[in-house]
């Protein structure tokens, strides 16, 4: 899989994510997809396998009325693709950290994508905010 194909797959994944299209997201990932979200050095979400990934995605869709991940920079590093991400989401519910329904959450971070057999096999989202 060349870099252009990897970037196209990432773009399809992000388009589906932004549209709350879980089936579209699932079509871009491998059956053994591993997902990890790290915030301020701590893992706060993890899934292994497409069924756990789907469950996590289904839970996440109810947290926001709208959301958008956009790539601000991208590079390939040792077979992985590292993207700098700007994330913006409007909350659909109050969060335990004090953010309230209707507020806009803005984060900057990176997503690291790994690939296997033409699909995304691992996503690691990292932010320090």
Q: What can you tell me about this protein's structure?
A:
- The structure is a single chain.
- Strand 3 and strand 4 form a beta hairpin.
- This protein has one domain (3-127): Nuclear Transport Factor 2, Chain: A, CATH 3.10.450.
- Helix 1 (3-18) packs antiparallel against helix 2.
- It is globular, with a radius of gyration of 14 Å.
- The chain is an alpha+beta fold and 129 residues long.
- The protein is 26% helix and 51% strand.
- It starts with a helix and ends with a strand.
- The protein has three helices and six strands.
- Strands 2-1-6-5-4-3 form a six-stranded mixed beta sheet.
- The model has no long low-confidence stretch (mean pLDDT 94).
- The longest helix has 16 residues, at 3-18.
Describe the secondary-structure layout:
Layout: H1 3-18, H2 22-28, E1 29-39, E2 42-48, H3 50-60, E3 64-77, E4 80-91, E5 104-116, E6 119-127
Parallel strand pairs: 1-6
Antiparallel strand pairs: 1-2, 3-4, 4-5, 5-6
Helix pairs in contact: 1-2
Total domains, how many?
Answer: 1
Pattern of helices and strands: HHEEHEEEE
Number of strands: 6
**What is the CATH architecture descriptor?**
Roll
Span of the ends, CA to CA: 33 Å
- What is the mean predicted local confidence, pLDDT? 94
CATH topology: Nuclear Transport Factor 2, Chain: A
Unreliable spans are none
Alpha plus pi helix count = 3
Assembly form of the protein: single chain
| Radius of gyration from CA coordinates | 14 Å
Structural class, judged by helices and strands? alpha+beta
Helix content: 25-40%
Characterize the biggest β-sheet: 6 strands, mixed
